[in-house]
Design brief:
CATH class: Mainly Alpha
Radius of gyration: 21 Å
Distance between the termini: 58 Å
Shape: globular
Strand order of the largest sheet: 1-2
Number of helices: 18
Order of helices and strands: HHHHHHHHHHHEEHHHHHHH
CATH superfamily: Amino acid/polyamine transporter I
Length: about 450
């Protein structure tokens, strides 16, 4: 039996309180879907291809919602995250392979997050890039310190930063002159050139984030359902401190399904918000920069800010830089937490966050110090993330399709079929990109 905390709350008010208490994990996941890599790929996509890639963002966001719902369901049904289940259910060499690629993905994620934060600090305060990278990494520790005091403060700060990103991007979109006809045509699937294929793969990698699949399953497993006798407050093996058990009484599976419904509402709101931000970025890039003789230069974020200042004024440039800074700060903290989940889940190893952060942030600091083209590094980091998606998605589909793992929450046949179609579609895009890059 699973029980609900604070069962004394009566009627609709009590139901609303329990529902609100369940909201949060998807907002932590959502910040990864609007990280600085999204800024680079979405504005570049709009400037270079116009509205043509709008359908890619729409499709990727729907896939992201679907994938995150599977991840939340896995944690809810099992009390374990995806990394732990892969370690326990697969052969050791398979688990180690999955861990290695997950660490590569974590490093690619950090490249985008640290570079984005450093660029934003440079745009706002003319701070040297390397120093800005160090500041961004340090802010991640502040966010993680909040998480150490409980999930709610961390979630509230991350949600606040997501709102800042949303406000900054939408503020600029509302001032741009959007071609509604061309925007409508952009939802029709098509790719007209090699460059759009690379941009599409980058957008996909920036939208469906593999590392956040591991984190979302952990957040639902270790916060919402601690399986302890009598319900109430359980003890989290992950963090070693009390967590709130929020479930619904019942032995027939209805309680878990009711919880799953709340999680899906959480995902719909949070990732819907992230999807609107991504679409607003691409639409702004298309409306403001597509068709210019030097449109390709807007794949650089500093050029985007200059373009916004030229066309919409200084307030637009400031709004963009603040949104980028909020994105870099929040996603950096979330990325570090994801890396901790991956390492602990696959290896049963919990290392100090300072050591963990130093390992994953080093490539980003090398990029900043070496004078590499930062925008190109951002876009390429998203392509790396795109390659990592199947390694998280395939085990997720396999595990959620097993009744011995999921119990009453096992996937239905049509859910499994849809998941495999999504996985094969992503693999197909990646294969197309490999052929284009290697043989094109």
């Amino acid at each position: 039996m699973v029980r609900v905390a604070d069962t004394r709350a009566p009627g609709a008010a009590g139901e609303a309180r329990r529902g609100l208490a369940l909201l949060g994990p998807a907002f932590v996941a959502a910040i990864a879907y609007v990280d600085p890599g999204n800024f680079a790929t979405n504005f570049a996509g709009g400037a270079i291809a116009g509205y043509e890639l709008l359908w890619v963002i729409l499709a990727a966001n729907l896939v992201a919602m679907f994938v995150q719902s599977l991840a939340a369901k896995l944690g809810l049904a099992t009390g374990h995250d995806l990394a732990e289940l892969c370690r326990d259910r697969y052969r050791p060499w398979v688990a180690r392979l999955l861990w290695v690629q997950a660490e590569i993905v974590a490093m690619a994620t950090d490249v985008a997050e640290i570079i984005g934060g450093a660029l934003a600090l440079d745009l706002l305060f003319e701070m040297p890039l390397l120093l800005g990278g160090l500041v961004t990494a340090a802010v991640a520790f502040v966010l993680l310190a909040l998480h150490g005091r409980g999930h709610r403060p961390f979630e509230l700060v991350v949600t606040g930063l997501l709102i800042v990103v949303f406000a900054g991007i939408v503020f600029n979109l509302l001032r741009a002159e959007v071609d509604l006809g061309a925007m409508a045509e952009g939802v029709v699937p098509r790719l007209t050139g090699d460059e759009t294929v690379i941009l599409a793969a980058g957008i996909l990698g920036a939208t469906v984030m593999p590392h956040i699949v591991y984190l979302h399953s952990a957040l639902t497993a270790r916060r919402e359902l601690e399986r302890v006798p009598g319900g109430g407050l359980g003890q989290s093996a992950w963090e070693g401190k009390p967590v709130t058990t929020l479930a619904v009484e019942g032995d027939d599976g209805r309680g878990l399904r009711r919880l799953l419904t709340f999680q899906r509402v959480d995902i719909l709101i949070a990732l819907g918000m992230a999807g609107l931000v991504n679409m607003a970025m691409l639409i702004s890039g298309a409306a403001l920069f597509h068709g210019h003789d030097d449109a390709t230069r807007f794949d650089a974020l500093d050029a985007v800010q200059e373009g916004l200042a030229d066309q919409l004024g200084g307030s637009a440039a400031i709004a963009f830089a603040i949104a980028l800074l909020a994105s870099g700060f929040a996603s950096s903290g979330v990325g570090t937490l994801s890396g901790q989940v991956v390492m602990q889940g696959f290896l049963r190893l919990r290392i100090p966050l300072l050591v963990r952060r130093a390992v994953t942030v080093l490539p980003a600091l090398v990029v900043l110090g070496a004078g590499v083209d930062l925008t190109q590094a951002l876009v390429l980091s998203q392509v790396v993330l795109s390659f990592g998606i199947p390694f998280a998605l395939v085990p997720l589909v396999l595990l959620t399709s097993r009744v011995d793992v999921m119990g009453d929450l096992v996937n239905r046949v049509h859910t499994t079929l849809a998941a495999w179609i999504a996985a094969l579609g992503i693999v197909g895009v990646n294969a197309w990109l490999i052929v284009d890059v290697v043989f094109g």
